[in-house]
Each structure stands twice: as structure tokens, then as C-alpha cells.
Amino acid sequence: LAKDLQAHVDAQAATGGAPRFVQRVVGAGPYLNLFVNRALVFHLAVQLVQAKGSKYGHGTVHAGKRVIIEHTSSNPNAPLHIGNLRNVMVGAHMAKMLEAVGYDVKQHFYVNDLGAQIGLTALAYSRVYPNLKPSQIKRDHWIGQMYAIMNTCSELQKVGVDVGRLADAAHESKGAVEEIEAAAHKAKEGDEKAQGKVKEYVDIFMDLRSRFGELFEVTVQTMRRVPDIQKTSAELNLAYERQEPWAIKIFRKMVTDCLSGVTETLNTYGVQHDAFDFESELGWEGSNTRVLDIIKSSPYYVPETQCNEEGVPQGSYLNMTKFIADQKLPTGKKGYQKEYPNFYVLRPDGSTLYTFRDVVYSFKKASKSDMILNVIASEQNLAQEKVALAMYMVGGKEMIGRQTHLTYDIVRLPHGKMSGRRGRYLLADDLYDELKEIIREVMRKKYEEKGEVMDEATFDKVTHEVSSASMKYALLCVGARVQVTFDMQKVTSFEDSSAPFILYNSTRVVSLLNKFKERSEKGDPRCPPLPAADACDYSALDNQAEWELLMDFVLPFYQVIEGGACPNVPPLPGLPEFKTHVICEFLNAFTRRLSSYYRAVRILPGDSDGDGGGGAMHARLQLCKAFKQTIDNGLRLLMVEPVEKM
Fold this sequence. Notes:
This protein has 646 residues and is α/β, with parallel strands linked by helices. It contains 23 helices and twelve strands. The strands form four sheets. It has a five-stranded parallel beta sheet, sandwiched between helices. It has a three-stranded antiparallel beta sheet with strand order 6-7-8, covered by helices on one side. The chain has a two-stranded antiparallel sheet with strand order 1-2. Strand 9, helix 15 and strand 10 form a beta-alpha-beta unit. The two termini are 54 Å apart.
């Protein structure tokens, strides 16, 4: 077979015409080795990359299919923290990946504007905002502080502590505070849990007082006149759900003010949503009622009761264990739990639960898409699994696989834990400021060492992009299901396995081309003007490293993207394993190899004859442009805009 094929190749070559792709065929035992025309491969590859430009690596295999990715969806009463930020990055990155393989992608933010903690914050906002406006602080930060104060005041009331008296005692002395704490502790004698709450929340109260200054004082003085904060906020919540105009005005003011701050943070990282979907509107537009009527007609629906078999009130639910058994769905190690938890729909009083509203929202998304992908923290796995199963129970088999979720693990900090209720978290805005300050210092020193000057506006733009890229890389460089330990020193490193390292190697190509252009324009005879890509002699490319860079990175780029964005879909309840880390791995490996290539091969001529340059120079410059285009396209999948100079 090898001899026959070689004869065919020789015959074709003898006819002249266009160069042949296969040059030689050799049989080796059971294998057939084809030797390709490397010069032709280089030529075609460079032309293809240049022709596709920023779309190189993209495909259309999934064109016409609609995807809604729901991500971020942070509570609209607090700023984004580093844990939220991993959700943001995973979701926005997957949107880019799915778009690259042809999907029509929309990014949605589910605004959870119902619930106890939103009611608490709205109550405070409505009464504090007329008397105190945030100054020198972002509004979402201010609202997050307000929620922490309100939650603490509410919890103290629950254990019998008068927050007004406690605030007065705090102004008097430490001893006065201890007296109030001791009295509350004694009043809860025999209830160790309540006694623990007294100490815990008095400590938090004093901590918030020391950190939040005027906002703390105004909020507490306002709330001391509210005898039951929890009840009052619940009444406000109910009025909002009932679409009472005065309540809508209060909630929407607080929520939209907070979201404006969150959106500002997202813009810093280059992330934008196509839609903000409000949970409250599911009820207002009638979606809740329509879905509830369908659920109530299900044979698996069990109505609410004021007295179940155990003599206590119980909400209505869908019997998922029976449904799993009837449908003969797998159970056990690779299936559903054998005794599957019920899916509760209504409380005993007939009000809807947020889990039910999640199902309603999922049906709404399904009406606008072919696939739904929710980005959620790993502790929400079971809840999301139940929502998908409820869609199957209510919507039939056409809902199988319509919604899946991409789960991510937590971000671990070297020191301490985060808590929104205590007002302690590593804010995304503060983190960005710290990152940028470190990056600015490192880059300024490097410029000084090299004697280079960059105007302040350009320097600020470059350091912003490097800082933002550093955060994105840190949160995406490992699989989503793997914990991230956030190490500031590693994140801001300019060495291997970091965003600065990748960006630097991209800018090296720009520097190389600029040096060539400068020498060419000055009339250097060894640097004649660069011809078009199709006019270069690629047969002069004789270094094995450049062939391997082409074969290992440039040509397989689309397969890398598709492999990350389109994993195999296992049978229910298994989850597809989206590979959100592959582009980081790809870029890191590519730039490491490219860095070695730069060191080994002199592309431009040196000071002595025969030192670099030569016939291969033009081909290598065009090849390096293809390398850079591939790297830059990979960076854009990470929401990182390449820079021209570092």
C-alpha cells in the first residue's frame, strides 16, 4: 500500500502544478506514515489565521441553538465578593466558549428581590436614606453594611436584647454593655443556644459599631423605634409581593441602587449581562399561578395541610421518590438518592417557596432557549438537581436535559472566613484595587530598570488590563469543581503560570515586529520590507520547535475550545463536566513553549553576519503573527483584552 501511494504521489508531482500536501509515504509494520509538505502546511495555516483574525478558532457546528447562561445572581443587598466573582468568571467564560462553537448565547442575572434579608435591607434603606446618603463609598458597599447592621439588630431582638439600650450602653462604657449582655444571658437560662446567640450578636454589634461609624449610629437609632424588626420587614415583603405601589417604590429603589454598584464592578472585569430577571415579576406576570396550576394537577402532588401524620403543619410538595420509582430512573451511586427528598412547593399557609419560584423561572428560560446552563456553588447541587427533576415531572420528557448546571467549589482565603451577615468579606472592588496597586508597582520598577517611559494614561490602561486578567486567570486556571486558594503573591506573579506571563509573551511579538519595522524603515539591508503572508518562503522554516508550536497549539485551537465547551452529556442525574480551565492551561503551555522558542531561535539579524535573519526571517515573522493571533483569541475567551506593550 505504501509503495502504491508513493507511486501516486510521484506521478502527481511529475505533472507539475500546485504543490502536493503529501510528499512521501512509508510503510512501517502495520503502520502507514505520511510525510506532509511542511512548507505548504505553514503557508496554509498562516493564511487561515490571518484571514479569520479575531474569529480564528471559532466554529459554527452549533449555530442556530440558543443557550441561556444564568450566572452571578448575587443577592441585591450586598456588593460582589470574591466568592461571587468565581461565579461571574466561570459563567462569563463559558458564554464566550459556547459562542465560539456557534451557540447563540444570552447571559442572564436572576435578581432575588424577595425574601427575609431583602426585606430587612429595604426596611432600613427606606428609613435611613432620607436622612443619610452614602458619601465616598459605593452604594452597593453601603447597602451591604446596612444589611449586616439590620440582621444583627433583628437577631438581638429575637434573644430579648433592646438594641436602643445596647447602643446607649456602648456610648457609656464597656461595663454597661457587659451588664446588658449578662442580663440577657440570665433571661435565657436553660437555653444554651439562645445564650450563645446573645454573646455572638453582642460581639458582632460592637464590631460593626467600630467599623461602620455614622451609618451604624443612624441605622440603630432609627431601628430602636421598631419593636419587632422581623415582623415589620415581613409585612413590607408581603406588600411588595402584592404589588402595592408604595412598597414597590421602596424595594426597587434599594435593589436598583445596589445593582448599579454591582454592574459597575462587573464592568471593571469586562462582564455584561443581556437581561436582569426579577424574581418578584414571576408572580406579578402570572407565571407562578400558571405553573402552580399545572403542578397541582400532577399525580405526585401532595397538598399542604395544617396537621400531617405527625400532628404538625406541612407544606405541599411533589413526591419525587415515587416519580423516580415509577419512571425507573437509576438510583444509588450513579443515580438519584434512594429516599429522595420531597420537593416543597408551598408553605402550610399557602405562600410560595423560593424553590418553587426557581422552577417557574426555569420554565420561563426554557421558553426562550434550547439549553439552560446555571452556574451555581457546589452546596446548591441537590437543589438544582431537584429543580431539573421537577421540570421533568411537570413538563414531560421534552424537559429532560433542557436545564443543567455548572457547579464550582469555594474560594478559600489564606486567613479568615467571609460572612455577609457580619459584614466581613473580601470585596471584589477592594481586591481589584489591591491587585492593581501591586501590578503598578512591579511594572513601574521594570520600566525604570529598562529606562523606558510610558505616559500615565497608557500605563493606567495597561495595568488595569493586567490586574483584571490576573484575577480572571486565578479563578479559571483550575477546574470549576476544584477549590481555589487565593494567593495574592502567586496571582500577581510575572513568571510562569500567570496572566502577566501570558500577556507578556503576547506583547513580545509586537515588540519583535516593531523592531523589524524600525530597522526596515531605516534602510537596514538585512531587514527588507515584510511581504504579504502568501509571498513568504515557508520552506526556510527548518526549526522543529516552530513546527511543534503550529501542530500542538495553532492548528488544534478549535478542538481545545470545543472540548471545553461541549463535554459528553451523561444520563440523568449526571452532569456534563464543562472544562473551564482548558484555555488557561492551553495559553500557559503555549506561551511557555513560545518563550523557549524565542530564546533558541534568533528571528531578526544580529550584529554579525549570519546571526539570525536570512531567508527564514519573513516567514518567521508571519508565523509569529499567527502565534500571537491564536494567543490573543484565547485571551479574549477569558474576557482579557490583549495589550500592545507591558
